[in-house]
Amino acid sequence: MDVKTKSESPIVVRGLKKAFGKVVVLDGITFELVSGQVTCVLGRSGTGKSVLLKLLIGLQKPDAGTIQLAGHDILTAPLTELNDARKKVGFLFQQSALYDSMTIGENVAFPLRRHGKLSDNDLRERIHKLLESVDMDRDLDKMPSDLSGGMRKRVGLARALALEPAIVMFDEPTAGLDPITAAEIAKLIVGLRDRHITSIVVTHDIHTARTIADRLIVLDGGKSLFDGTFAELQQCKLPFIAQFMKDAA
To answer: Which residue of 50, 62, 83, 186 is 20 to 30 Å from 119, comparing CA positions?
Structure first.
């Protein structure tokens, strides 16, 4: 990998393999993300989509292959370097993963207090702007239990953006949401392009993928069967892809 590619590509994956016992989840996955684009990773349940995200952020280790995250080789980098790389990544979990004992404002403030050095006034202003960006600024003092699923996703996204990441990872961001709320979340993801943020979205929702994705990667049997645009996906003649598109319609 030359220096130019390493510095310009937010995530570079080469030959990634992961198995749990005899079950091979990922078998030689290779791709690199384009800065500022939204990439959707599609596939049936159990095809390793969420495992891929955990590998990319360093929560699990692959059996083979390399991962560069924000220019850092996360498999060989010292812990301090890995932590610096992680600060450049926001993560929106499938269930939002908000702290139930904290208000909405306190949830968003958590990474800022942990990693930032803002004054109290600057912190309050930053929290307000983050929540305003997801249309949740009027709910700052509510508890997570007071919110709908879609509202929790919005707050989770605001928290993911707190440290101004270059990359945001989404694990099934529209799962369990009604079509209107799912469309609202999709719009927020698309809006990250205007902020030059690179997004990787794991989803089984083909309708959301069609709306948000610049590029789609389809996994099956541990392999990447397809990598391209939605228009190209529609024209793909592979039997699995054709059946996947039919089942998702």
So the answer is: 83
